[in-house]
Fold each of these.
Amino acid sequence: MPNRELVVLGTASQAPTRTRNHNGYFLRWDQEGLLFDPGEGTQRQMLFAGVTASQVTRVCVTHFHGDHCLGLPGVLQRMSLDRVAHPVRAYYPGVDGEVFWRLRHASLFHDRLTLVEHPVDGDGVVADRSDGADGPDGAGSDGFRLEARALSHLVPAIGYRLVEPDGRRMLPDELDARGIAGPDVGRLRRAGRLETSGGPVTLEEVSVPRRGQRFAFIMDTRLCDAAFELADGADMLVCESTFADADAALARDYGHLTAGQAGQIAAAAGARLLVLTHFSQRYETGAPERLRDEAAASFGGDIVMAADLERIPVPKRAP
Ligand SMILES: [Zn+2]
């Protein structure tokens, strides 16, 4: 099982269909699990997908249209029912804090969950685990920063991206040759230098630069600068493509992207894998492949049309 993968829980915009649940995405990233935009039915989709409530460490909501948040009451109460022991952090547009409160307290239950709220009130870093050392994934991971930016929709909406800092990849042969093993590897990593019986060893001698991985999540928005900034250099870009290019006027009026625009963002940002999702039910009976073709008109990288319950690995690190 890859350490980093996207589990697709739902892919429908506005109204679910026979084959598409409302939105929902679970990003497994080492020991962390980020649940994005839990729409209605997310709790049951998690069951089908093999994702448990206790695997969720953070919940990220882009905005409070129902297809992006009506699953929150069920998921949060399930966490409480399952006695999730760790604190769960929640991120959402701060201006709509009252809507979050209503969802959090939508029904009566014995609330055992420790939910730490992080209302997002501006662009920037909303969570910083970039030291990597304090987290459960300290070994071999450089942690991440979670960033948010305001998008352009009909209501306040934000997009997210996860950025792993650039780090270094240890070279086992070079470590062996110098007799460095066990906790000494971590010491050398942190200090950049280690005294050994054979003399001092620097981190540069036993490692090579490793580019950090990036994941971007862009839901309901018109084409805007923030979308390009979020997608910048993404290894995996999950992007709404509610409309086909022929319906560009509708997309603009309702604050959405077309598949072609999603392709433009991915191309300009230098993304590696584009995951298209959040499809309008109007294309359910047509050929959804047309949306892929429209995105591919400007983006030459890999494109996946997301399907419910699909698991999509974050691409291997760029060489
Ligand atoms: Zn919306």
Amino acid sequence: MAKIGMFGAGYVGLVTGACFADLGHEVVIRDILPERIEMLRRGEVPIYEPGLDAVLERNHDRLRFTLDVAEAVDGAEFLYVAVGTPPTESGDADLTAVWAVVDELPLDIPGRPVVVMKSTVPVGTGSHVRARLDARGLSNVGYVSNPEFLAEGTAVTDFTTPDRIVIGAFDAEDGDRVVELHEGIDGEVLCTDVHSAELVKLAANAFLSTRISFINEIANVCELVGADVVDVARGVGLDHRLGPHFLRAGIGFGGSCFPKDVSALKQLAGNEGYPFMLLHAVWEVNELQKRRVVQKLQKHLGSLRGRRIALLGLAFKPNTDDMREAPSRVIAYRLIAEGAEVAAWDPVARPTDLAGVDICDSVLETVRGVDAAVIVTEWPELASFASSEIRDAMANPLVVDGRNLLDPEKTQAAGFTYEGIGRPRHASPVQPPEPVA
Ligand SMILES: NC(=O)c1ccc[n+]([C@@H]2O[C@H](COP(=O)([O-])OP(=O)(O)OC[C@H]3O[C@@H](n4cnc5c(N)ncnc54)[C@H](O)[C@@H]3O)[C@@H](O)[C@H]2O)c1
């Protein structure tokens, strides 16, 4: 069994570290946030990720948490980098945290530990890190790119049953050691060079984002020509060459990965002089898709000034508390800019930075007296939204189903005005708005 130093105790570092411990390895997880490390030492989990608490709990003998670099490096055969790489003002990836880890490594590390890059980084980063390690006299330290494909909400099972494990190495022996470390995990292994491994990650996220923007554009066409995108997507996805995944129309993608990785790949290509036109379109479609919610509300309500709107679901997707780049942020601030009051609910996310948004504790409290409700995140709790209790609580029973979660006919039969995404055949006729008092 190996000793692993894990840099970063976020969604990737914590899940990966805990799951490696579950395979029997000894893992020391290092972060720079004292409150995060203290929570973990107390047995508390600082993020919401289903199943993670149980993995941490049953492996606490093999897991340590520290603020100290030396403790994470001491005796480690693998030094995993799982720090954040958010976008900079220019849309490129911000590698400040990655460089901090590389530069924090002590100069006297014995043996041949391997730095393993889990963070999503631009192509070429591995070569730059290799050069920096060499320049610091750490030529004995290996480097392997091992991009992460887990999805928040299913991160633990994604680790144990991955579609693939991608390993890009400068030195084949270093790559083989990282392959061996994954023994016990059933997933296809792709061994390649560092540049290709780096690009697999960016290309995969860009392609998933492209599918989402594609089906959202199809939904927008459906609204013009009277087709139902749910049936269209099903018919398209039944083609074995295409498959059904990521063909669900809605109000656009968000989260800590897709937006930044689309941007990072677009900028990476641009920096090399290549305009990646398709990704420009993917990005623009996604920005407009979030704003279409406001137009749908205006179609039914006219001016939104003085209207109260409920946003149901705030996290960028269900089963996570992650609010990074969540579409709810854009929708909330567009509504406030239009003069609306915004009430919001999420079963897990409790954002403290949504100024002007009234965060409520239950769906019922959120919809009380509102002129419309918007389903922003398809939390399972919202599947039973179309009840008489909810309808009676709303001042006006208009629901904009931003994730096509509800059954349009049943929702209308329950007395709601229904507006989905790309489902014109089910849309309720627009009622003339009541004058605002
Ligand atoms: N979240 C995902 O679903 C996901 C999936 C695949 C890949 N990724 C990639 O993995 C990387 C990490 O993402 P995340 O969502 O876990 O980020 P995160 O923000 O949740 O966690 C990053 C952690 O790194 C810590 N950190 C910063 N500097 C450090 C340092 N010098 N030493 C140790 N720790 C330090 C931060 O305090 C934070 O706790 C990113 O590059 C991301 O693009 C994320």
